[in-house]
């Protein structure tokens, strides 16, 4: 796997898990010229687990997803598979994916991807701190004298 | 027997109109927002997602609103919607060892790496009604403390490292899918786990409780119960790599059960496994106990007396949509069936009276 594809893979994940409201707030700009390779389509992915966390795979249930593919005026392709049923979110994610492979990449990285990553890290950190506050400190009762 | 009958269209239409009216309730009160249900009745939403077998909190909240809070009716709506969705593919198995923990406890060890993390639990509450909840008042944010970084290892992995518990090797195999092929028994464990995770919570709870009371004895410890968010990843062939496209809340329970050993094999604990969408620990613990009970035959235990060990019994009856569908169909018109029954009971009675009169 090349370094570039690792980066793209992380970007696609961050876009997939973000809310549409967040994407809109980070990038209020008009979309670039594009055409649909695949219009947003909502469906399901089957989520698998493993027996005993490490054993045989089994089907846990499905999660709603939406996918879309776009082609920018310059010919660059963008793809998205995002959580949830929002066609706008899938379209925006696919456009960002395409833009990230053009001269606009640095701008999208700074304006969208970096804030998404920071927000996700902060959400995780808050949850970890909340969990830590409910961690049990055991102490042994000292037997009273007399 | 079913025959086509006509009529009742107006009655049905008005019944549904009344249903909508009753669902709305007192118009002087604000209409319930779907986002409010998602946020403030989150455990009901989680149950609908688990048994509806579709992870989408907004949809589950909408289903609960439409169903007037009837959980099984909401599950029915979700199951129906699910069938309209094209299946794009399957994820890679989720990594619960990498879970972002909100709760993680063990009943087998006091001191475990990562510690006992209670999370937002009902445990240790006094179960006394809190009348102050009747009035809207500001609620302080959850407390925070310095947190160690990184994922928390599974507790059973420590037992596994010592060889004290049966391993769960990941053997590559086709994953059976209950939603694609009808259930056939005997079912492989992956198929059983799929049926259990979407099974009715009440049914699984009762079965699990029955094993604790001695029906198919397999005394269980909760080795670990963990709740938190996991990433869902899938390989995208078009791109040639995998992406983590979703973040979902799940509950996992690993049980440690009575050990087995023989002359050739040293004694080892056995295990049961529960994994459920959402924060649903009653369902996850029940699933682990029933999973373990259903493994009785493969583990060479005595079977035949306990329902929880009977695969056909458990798997055929754990789905609440299947059971309520069949149960409730008997309220629909059976006029012709019943006429036949009436005829069957009247004829012998007529014959009996005729016989009596003849004798007199």
Which protein chains make the most extensive interface, counting residues with beta carbons within 8 Å of the other chain's beta carbons?
A-B, 55 and 87 residues
Structural class of chain A: alpha+beta
Structural class of chain B: alpha+beta
**Global geometry of chain A:** elongated
Q: Could you give the order of strands across the largest sheet of chain B?
A: 3-4-5-6
Instruction: Name the beta content range of chain A.
Output: 25-35%
What is the helix fraction of residues of chain B, given as a range? Answer: 25-40%
Please estimate the helix content of chain A: 40-55%
Portion in strands of chain B: 15-25%
Total of DSSP H or I helical runs spanning 4+ residues of chain B: 12
Strand order, largest beta sheet of chain A? 1-2-3
Please report the total strand number of chain A as a whole number.
3
- CA radius of gyration of chain A: 21 Å
Main beta sheet of chain A: strand number and arrangement?
3 strands, antiparallel
How many DSSP E strands of chain B? 6
Radius of gyration of chain B: 26 Å
Q: So how many helices of chain A?
A: 4
* Number of domain units of chain B: 2
Mean pLDDT of chain B: 93
Total of domains of chain A: 1
């Amino acid at each position: 796997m090349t370094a570039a594809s690792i980066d793209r893979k992380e970007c696609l994940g961050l876009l997939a898990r973000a809310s549409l409201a967040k994407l809109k707030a980070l990038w209020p700009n008009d979309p670039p010229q594009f055409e649909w390779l695949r219009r947003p389509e909502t469906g399901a992915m089957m989520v698998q687990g493993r027996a005993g966390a490490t054993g045989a795979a089994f089907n846990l249930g499905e999660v709603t997803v939406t996918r879309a593919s776009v082609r920018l005026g310059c010919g660059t392709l963008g793809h998205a598979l995002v959580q949830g049923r929002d066609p706008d979110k899938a379209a925006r994610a696919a456009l960002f994916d395409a833009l990230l492979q053009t001269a606009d990449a640095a701008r999208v990285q700074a304006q969208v991807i970096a804030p998404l990553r920071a927000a996700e890290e902060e959400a995780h950190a808050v949850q970890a701190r909340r969990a830590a506050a409910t961690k049990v400190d055991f102490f042994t009762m000292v037997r009273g004298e007399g | 027997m079913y025959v086509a009958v006509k009529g009742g269209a107006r009655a049905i239409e008005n019944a549904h109109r009344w249903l909508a009216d009753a669902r709305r309730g007192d118009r002087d009160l604000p209409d319930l927002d779907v986002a409010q249900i998602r946020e403030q009745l989150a455990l009901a939403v989680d149950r609908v997602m688990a048994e509806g077998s579709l992870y989408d909190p907004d949809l589950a909240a909408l289903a609960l609103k439409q169903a007037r809070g009837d959980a099984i009716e909401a599950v029915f709506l979700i199951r129906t919607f699910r069938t309209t969705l094209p299946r794009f593919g399957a994820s890679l198995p989720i990594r619960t060892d990498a879970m972002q923990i909100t709760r993680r406890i063990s009943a087998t060890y006091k001191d475990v790496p990562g510690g006992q993390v209670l999370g937002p639990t009902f445990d240790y509450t006094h179960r006394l009604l809190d009348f102050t909840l009747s009035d809207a008042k500001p609620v302080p944010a959850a407390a925070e403390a310095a947190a160690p970084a990184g994922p928390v290892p599974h507790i059973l992995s420590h037992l596994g490292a010592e060889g004290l518990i049966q391993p769960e090797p990941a053997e590559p195999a086709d994953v059976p899918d209950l939603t694609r092929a009808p259930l056939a028994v005997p079912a492989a464990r992956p198929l059983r786990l799929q049926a259990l995770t979407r099974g009715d919570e009440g049914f699984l709870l009762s079965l699990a409780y029955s094993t604790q009371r001695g029906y198919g004895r397999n005394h269980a410890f909760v080795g670990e119960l963990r709740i938190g968010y996991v990433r869902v990843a899938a390989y995208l062939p078009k791109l040639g790599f995998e992406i983590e496209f979703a973040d979902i809340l799940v509950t996992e329970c690993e049980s440690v059960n009575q050990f087995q050993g023989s002359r050739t094999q040293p004694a080892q604990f056995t295990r049961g496994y529960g994994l459920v969408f959402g924060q649903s620990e009653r369902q996850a613990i029940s699933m682990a106990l029933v999973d373990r009970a259903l493994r009785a035959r493969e583990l060479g235990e005595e079977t035949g007396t306990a329902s929880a060990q009977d695969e056909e019994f458990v798997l055929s009856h754990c789905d609440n949509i299947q059971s309520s569908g069949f149960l409730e169909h008997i309220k629909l018109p059976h006029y012709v069936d019943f006429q036949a029954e009436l005829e069957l009971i009247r004829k012998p009675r007529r014959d009996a009276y005729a016989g009596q009169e003849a004798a007199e």
